[in-house]
Design goal:
The protein is α/β, with parallel strands linked by helices. Bound molecules: ligand C2E and magnesium ion (2 copies).
Length: 648
């Protein structure tokens, strides 16, 4: 009788079961790595159990068990063990080629492993007739066949192939994959050699469980797929999950939540409580339904993925999320409302990609036409998104082909009664030659990294126009976005353009909005001061909309404030607006700033604003924006003034 020691197998079985409990307890997010790991673990446990069964049945009760059952148990064991080797080999090949662009070899190797396994299975199935692997003598005693060790040979061949692929692709391997490649093959080879030398010490289960543990280390690195703070999946795992559902053509609903002004929560309640609130939000979302998968995709952005089960159910879930953010959240003693914007996208088999879904979510977040907390990315929003995309394509083309235009809107100087300055406004045409408003394409350019090119184009055009010297024009103001103040490039560009066209810096004014100032006041102040030293002056545009903050005017040297047309349009007929405008005019003059009134559309407003002491008037009443040539003619003709400026 063979004296086989089962201690290692039993020990390995216990470790395998612990790993399995740990796997299910942690609810790992879906990934190919996790599936491979689970498959390998299940095969390990099953083959160890079978091995124990084989040995016990052969040791104690061999004569009571029919030969076919012996054959069945042993054959199953042989099959399971090679399946396990194949799963591990495929897993390793996958992680080796994870960051390799050309994956032909990955597919070839996978086919090779599967082919070899199929051949081996044919050998196992035919074994009862051939006895190549093992056979049972008349006393039901296990006898090794001539090819008994072929499984080890195949495993050695797999290891060799994997090592070769790893060496060839070494520079593409991630740190954790390199670690697996450094440890797994040598350990497996060593243990296998030991097993071959001492066949009575059963080590197969041990080898397999060590393989699983090493795989777990690598798979744990996919904990990068988990957000450590909330335990939810992260952005990467959301992408993978969406991709998988799309490939399977299963319909789903995505609800995204972006917490707003969360920095205030951190300030009021401390970052520990802030973290606890984030955890609480994640926990609540992950318990929205048994089928939900919750992710934290940004610092204060969450996402849940739900199967689409019809409009009513989708609405119910969206409402539940929207309503939850209308109620207070409790962490310890602290209870507070968390303000949030929510977006919902439903996928019903459309030809979208995963990045489309993320784009739709971001688009819904940005979409400010609705004051609702939950914005659904519906047909209407989809149409807006498509229109924006078309405009963006046109914009890219226009930038490439330098087809943008700069128009000029004259500013009426109340003191001299002449048009001696202007605002430069960008124009773009669609394919039919129709003008597209900069109010539409400038925000798109800002969001899509095109604003720099647009600004440099405008800067060059304005300097060229000012430098042409044909007109009697004191200055032109140019609108700038926050992005331009991110680096010193602005200073260099402005300096170069002014020099190239021989324009005095005082003739170029820069219009910025308060949004620009709020981005990074310190850096802004530094850049503005540098440009002021060069001689440029700054206008504060659209004053009166958003968070008009007078302290900005104390911090930042602004030479002129442009009152927004939303104030001016109500001005002449509304007593309170009159009081406000007149007070502002007085205040800004006291602070040493000039004032432009934007959006002057009628005679009455023009008259009253002049009386109030506004320095410049800009609006359709005086002149609409016009192309360069028309503006040059307008200036040289200096049309008869709509009113005398005697009152100014
Ligand atoms: P803004 O700088 O406040 O420009 C004034 C806007 O008011 C212009 O719209 C102008 O056509 C419009 N406007 C002037 N007078 C009147 C009036 O009496 N009534 C009405 N209803 N509107 C009047 P436009 O040209 O559509 O520009 C919209 C915005 O796009 C600008 O607002 C500015 O923020 C931005 N923008 C335009 N060109 C550029 C540019 O070259 N660079 C950047 N960064 N932004 C630009
Ligand atoms: Mg402006
Ligand atoms: Mg404005």
């Amino acid at each position: 009788m063979i004296d086989w020691s089962l201690a290692t197998e039993v020990f390995s079985l216990v470790v395998g079961i612990i790993l399995l409990i740990n796997y299910y307890g942690k609810r790992w997010p879906y990934s190919r790595k996790s599936r491979f790991y689970l498959a390998s673990l299940l095969l390990t446990i099953a083959s160890i159990i079978l091995n124990i069964l084989c040995v016990r049945s052969l040791e104690n009760v061999a004569e009571y068990i029919p030969k076919w059952l012996h054959l069945l148990i042993n054959s199953s064991y042989f099959i399971l063990i090679l399946l396990m080797v194949t799963v591990v080999a495929c897993y390793l090949v996958e992680i080796i080629y994870e960051h390799v662009y050309e994956r032909v070899w990955m597919h070839r190797l996978r086919k090779l492993f599967i082919g070899v396994t199929a051949g081996y299975m044919a050998l196992v199935v035919s074994n009862p007739f051939t006895g190549f692997l093992f056979w049972f003598d008349g006393d039901n005693r296990y006898q090794r066949g001539p090819l008994n060790r072929i499984g080890y040979c195949l495993m050695a061949a797999d290891v060799a192939v994997i090592m070769a692929s790893a060496v060839l692709n070494w520079r593409h391997l991630s740190k954790s994959t390199r670690q697996v490649i450094r440890t797994l093959p040598p350990v497996v080879i060593l243990l296998t050699a030991f097993q071959l030398l001492y066949p009575d010490h059963l080590l197969n289960g041990g080898i397999m469980i060590i393989t699983d543990i090493i795989m777990l280390f690598n798979f744990q690195s996919s904990r990068i797929e988990l957000d450590s703070q909330t335990g939810l999946g992260n952005r990467g795992s959301l992408y993978r999950q969406i991709g998988r559902r799309m490939r399977q053509r299963s319909f789903f609903q995505v609800i995204a939540v972006s917490l707003t002004r969360f920095n205030l929560i951190n300030q009021y309640y401390g970052t520990d409580n802030g973290d606890a609130f984030l955890y609480e939000v994640g926990r609540w979302l992950s318990e929205l339904s048994p089928q939900v998968q919750a992710y934290r995709i940004g610092n204060v952005e969450f996402c849940v993925l739900l199967p689409y089960q019809g409009e009513t159910q989708a609405e119910r879930w969206a409402d539940a999320v929207g309503q939850r953010f209308g109620q207070p959240w409790q962490v310890g003693e602290v209870s507070t409302l968390l303000s949030a914007r929510c977006a919902e996208v439903v996928y019903r088999g459309e030809q979208w990609s995963c990045s489309n879904i993320i784009e739709f979510i971001n688009y819904s977040f940005r979409y400010n036409g609705s004051k609702e907390r939950m914005v659904r990315f519906d047909q209407r929003l989809f149409a807006c998104w498509e229109r924006d995309r078309q405009i963006l394509t046109l914009l890219r083309q226009a930038v490439r082909e330098k087809r943008l235009e700069i128009w000029y809107q004259p500013l009426y100087d109340c003191r001299s009664g002449r048009y001696n300055s202007a605002e430069a406004l960008m124009r773009m045409r669609d394919r039919d030659g129709k003008l597209i408003s900069p109010g539409v394409f400038i925000p798109l350019a800002e969001e899509n990294g095109l604003i720099d090119e647009l600004t440099w184009f405008a800067l060059e055009e304005v300097c060229r126009f000012l430098g042409s010297g044909k007109q009697d024009l004191e200055s032109v103001s140019l609108n700038m976005s926050a992005h331009q103040f991110a680096s010193n490039e602005l200073i260099v560009r402005i300096g170069n353009s002014l020099r190239r066209h021989q324009v005095r810096p005082e003739r170029l004014k820069i219009e910025i909005t308060e949004r620009v100032l709020s981005e990074d006041p310190e850096r802004m102040c530094r850049i503005i001061n540098q440009l002021r030293e060069m001689g440029l002056r700054f206008y504060l545009d659209d004053f009166g909309v958003g968070y008009s903050n007078l302290s900005n005017l104390l911090e930042i040297p602004i030479s002129c404030v442009k009152l927004d047309q939303s104030i001016i349009s109500r001005y002449p007929r509304d007593r309170r607006s009159c009081a406000m405008v007149e007070t502002m005019v007085h205040l800004f003059h006291q602070m040493g700033c000039h004032i432009v009134a934007e959006g002057v559309e009628d005679e009455l407003a023009a008259q009253k604003l002049r009386l109030a002491g506004v320095d410049w008037l800009q609006g359709f009443y005086y002149a609409k924006p016009m192309p360069e040539q028309a503006f040059a003619e307008f200036l040289s003709a200096q049309p008869s003034l709509p009113d005398s400026c005697g009152n100014c």
